[in-house]
Amino acid sequence: MDKPILTLSGAISHTNSDSGYAFDMAMLEQLPQYSFTTSTPWFPEPHKFSGPLMRDILAKVGAQGDTLTAIALNDYKVSIPMDNSTRFNLIVATHKDDKRMSVRDKGPLFVLYPFDNESETQSQVYYDRSIWQLKAIHIE
After folding, report:
1. What whole-number distance in Å separates Cα of residue 67 and Cα of residue 28?
2. pLDDT tens digits, residue range 64-121?
3. Helices (H), 1-115
4. What is the pLDDT of residue 46?
5. Is the backbone peptide bond immediately before 108 cis, with ω within 30 degrees of 0?
6. Burial class of residue 97 (count of CB atoms within 10 Å of its CB; 0-12, 13-18, 19+)
């Protein structure tokens, strides 16, 4: 395994490390990939974002719970209701416009809702749940 970039902990039934379940980039890229193009408040024009669906990541670790606490590299935290991962095509983007996202460009992982495809997500509530520079998810 290369350097882990995403660790899931808490209410999960599958682990591969002492801290829970650690994914490196290759492991995330082995999951089915999903893409959409959407406008966001953070970029002046729409971009194509690609990566695994959050629900596929949660299924891989056997996540059970109601709340995802997503944690960024700078320890910023946001709560995401678990059902958002099934109600929407919520992705953990690894690529923007087919290029791997750098830390400088909100990467390497960016949780994104398909804002242009789901009008319900075009609100501050969902913008606030879109966390960039994701490093960990704790499930409760």
Report:
1. 21
2. 999 999 999 999 999 999 999 999 999 999 999 999 999 999 999 999 999 999 999 9
3. 25-30, 54-61, 84-87
4. 97
5. yes
6. exposed
Q: Are 106 and 132 in contact (CB under 8 A)?
A: yes
Q: How far apart, in whole angstroms, are the C-alpha atoms of residue 140 and residue 110? A: 21
- Token pair, residue 63, equals 């996540």
Q: Compute the chain's Rg from CA coordinates.
A: 14
Q: What are phi and psi of 54, to 5 degrees?
A: -55, -40
The whole-angstrom separation of Cα 98 and Cα 121 is 23
- Give me 33's structure tokens: 């990939």
How do 134-139 and 6-10 pair as beta strands? parallel
For residue 50, what are its two tokens?
Answer: 């690609």
Each residue's pLDDT tens digit, 21-76: 999 999 999 999 999 999 999 999 999 999 999 999 999 999 999 999 999 999 99
List C-alpha distances in Å: 36 to 23, 25, 28, 55: 23, 20, 17, 16
